[in-house]
Amino acid sequence: MGRSVTILWLVIAAAVVALGYVRLAPSDPQRWHVPPQVQADADLPGGAKRRVETGPDGLERLDMIARDWPRTKVLAGSVEQGMVTYLTRSKVIGFPDYTTVQQVGDHLEIFARLRFGGSDLGVNKARVEEWIDALQAGG
């Protein structure tokens, strides 16, 4: 029984450390703030890429939507620079997802991706689609 309790405590401690790392690990802008280079829409196991016709003010309008999104903040870039990378964390565990948006002429290139794991269960795709819907609705 003593060995089982020790193993249980070790498993609990490892889980706490892992969850703490997920929530507190620093996000390196040099790694995540890179041009999306989207040639065509694509759904990926850990994210999504979209190319959207918006006119020359698309990034400015999308930036307002993204900044109002729950648990989302700017990691790097600005509208004035023509490219912004947003960090969005999941509600419970705090998994970080990165969405880079770049204005290229009259369209936006958007690349949303996860940091940890192999699948995001469609979370990034859903968020990007909601951002695009809000953008097209004039929000």
Description:
This protein has 139 residues and is an alpha+beta fold. It has one domain: 2-Layer Sandwich (TATA-Binding Protein). It has helices spanning 2-24, 29-32, 58-67, 123-136; strands at 42-44, 47-53, 72-78, 83-89, 96-104, 107-114. A hairpin with a 6-residue loop joins strand 4 and strand 5. Helix 3 (58-67) packs across helix 4 (123-136). InterPro entries: DUF1499. This is DUF1499 domain-containing protein. It comes from Cribrihabitans marinus.
Sheet of most strands: 6 strands, antiparallel
Strand order of the largest sheet: 1-2-6-5-4-3
What structural category arises from helix and sheet content?
alpha+beta
The helix/strand series, from N terminus to C terminus, equals HHEEHEEEEH
Instruction: Report helical residue fraction.
Output: 25-40%
CATH superfamily: Kinase associated domain 1, KA1
End-to-end gap:
60 Å
CATH class reads Alpha Beta
- What is the CATH topology assignment? TATA-Binding Protein
> For the CA atoms, what is the radius of gyration?
18 Å
Overall strand count: 6
Output mean pLDDT. 92
What best-fitting shape do the alpha-carbon axes yield? elongated
Count of separate DSSP helical elements? 4
CATH architecture: 2-Layer Sandwich
Given as residue ranges, the uncertain stretches (5+ residues, pLDDT < 50) are none
The domain tally reads: 1
Which percent range describes the beta-strand content? 25-35%
